[in-house]
Amino acid sequence: xxxxxxxxxxxxxxxxxxxxxxxxxxxxxxxxxxxxxxxxxxxxxxxxxxxxxxxxxxxxxxxxxxxxxxxxxxxxxxxxxxxxxxxxxxxxxxxxxxxxxxxxxxxxxxxxxxxxxxxxxxxxxxxxxxxxxxxxxxxxxxxxxxxxxxxxxxxxxxxxxxxxxxxxxxxxxxxxxxxxxxxxxxxxxxxxxxxxxxxxxxxxxxxxxxxxxxxxxxxxxxxxxxxxxxxxxxxxxxxxxxxxxxxxxxxxxxxxxxxxxxxxxxxxxxxxxxxxxxxxxxxxxxxxxxxxxxxxxxxxxxxxxxxxxxxxxxxxxxxxxxxxxxxxxxxxxxxxxxxxxxxxxxxxxxxxxxxxxxxxxxxxxxx
Length: 367
Description:
alpha+beta; 2 domains; FAD/NAD(P)-binding domain
């Protein structure tokens, strides 16, 4: 049995970003069930940082994270939030959220919005208003994961792939962790298992927090020949609808913002959701989507209040939750990694989180 200080379960963005920081404080190992990091939600994200989030704490964590996402793995790219008929109040809500954290955001007329995305419809079924964030952030999930992997290795930490946790038990003041190829004894177990976080807790006799994995669908499609969409903003409806973003010069990514409860799994797209994505884009734009270039699905896991959970379990010594990142894991990972480092090591609370009004109690299982 190998002894480590910190054993992180899950090599998605949450687990790897926290592991890279914890490795500075003691021996650190990440156990990943798949053959490579980021196989599930982190590697299937649309990867754009913005403030159109219902939770105030998620917006605050995003604000703390954006300065740390500058390089590598991020580049400036505008975001456009559009209101369809009946979504005026939603647009006001998004504007209020942006005024708090990004004062450069500004309201646009329909004509001005169409100057950025010429295919947006006017009139019936079209847009009625918009908000532009000129300094949004397009993220690179692979680059972010690779940066944390390298930092983890440089600090002496390691990743064990194809190493699902098959046994977990508290043995005195340490956790015994079994995988198919090796057993470990860990002072702290960090549960960053994404959609499997509750299942991991149950394996160790820890009560679950009620995570809900929700499936979301993404498609890509080619635009008409000669149309260059590379400079188009990330474009999202402020209420139910869709979002689109460029995937190079002649291709767009689209999502119908669907949410379907799922058991933890290797999520696959359902044909009706693929069709819904195409239909919603066609309804609000002049684009036709005769052929889908690619399609996939991922799981976004939420705690009951749809806020992330970060901190030691009050009833299981040494068991640390880092779960419930929903669809905002990439854009909040720097701030949550700072929080996990401070909580798991007993360090002072990070100034970056104090500056945005995020306190320890806001992230704990019992808030």
